[in-house]
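Thread title: Can someone regenerate the structure for this chain?

I was given the following input by a collaborator and told the matching structure tokens would be attached. They weren't. Posting the sequence so someone can regenerate them.
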Amino acid sequence: MKKIVSMISVLCMILTMSVTIIASENPYDYSGEPTRAIYYTLPTMKGDDVRWVQAALNKFGNYGLAIDGSFGPACKSATAKFQAAMGLEQDGSFGPATRAAMVNWLSQNSASDNTGSAASNANSPYNYSGEPSRAIYYTLPTMKGDDVKWVQAALNAFGNYGLAIDGSFGSACKTATAKFQSAMGLSQDGSFGPSTRQTMVDWLRNNGYGPVSSSGNSSAISASGKTFIQQGDGGCYTASAAMIMSNLGATWNGMSATYQNVYNANGYTAYLSGSTPGKFGCKRYNLETSKNSVIDAVKQYPQGVMVAFYQPNKGWNHCMVAVGLNASGEPLFYDPAVSYGSNGGYGFTLSETTAGGAYGGASWNNLLQVSVIVK
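Best answer:
Regenerated them for you:
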């Protein structure tokens, strides 16, 4: 009888551990993102918001942190690793900048979870109509329409306000608008008028949200008008990052993001390090590694998307920039390894790139990494 009781106890423990592991995969199984700075101290800081941090770090880096709600030295170390990957100061403290970087990363990697603000934040406002042509404000009955959905999605993208995308501008929308206006130094009347709309459009553009066509799909984005940067001695990652940051207007110590300047910021290394975009006021995020992810990212990030492939014919990896879509919906690439990589300003499909042919034999089956750089 004792053996049976003992076996039942063990089974219960295993089941409990399994449930904990499953729950810990998603930070939004706990409270929302923290509102306070969390850092290592003795006695340790505790709470559900610490559980959120632990689960978020595990999701990002598989650090194996216990979801115990206590911010110990392992949490500090994992936070510093996350900060290094995001180009942030590596102090191991989970403060506002680190929290915002994590929320943004989750929004790009958690859309299918459907369990918290990260899921709603993944909805681009351009999934709805274009930016509003009228002033939108709180009144009774409430103002309604697809342009209100655009406003709600845009506010969620900016501040993770958790607004329902229901097309009705209620009191919560007014409050969120006032918060956005406060952050942007505008008059805080809670009305989404012309100046607030233009400020939001500028913020969306600087953070990689691209417009959509009337059909609801992203317009094919020509490479024309973009800066193209050819790599120096090696360094396709550096050239790709420099091109994207240049298209974002990023600067470092007063210098634009040329290949040489990014190379210098790298510590004279031709391959992009995780902290380098941060020196230019930018952040880098990895996305899902798939062709569909590239297509979705190109729609959202008109400045370009970094895409790395393995080159089986050469035995090395190579990075290119996806710069748009052709009429068939195929991603178009700029190849920084060749001077004609822009193909007259329109880009190559993968099969047409030298990297996809004689240069190394890249294909969608050899996709290694998809990442974006945003300001």
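The domain at 236-374 is CATH 3.90.70.10 (Cathepsin B; Chain A).
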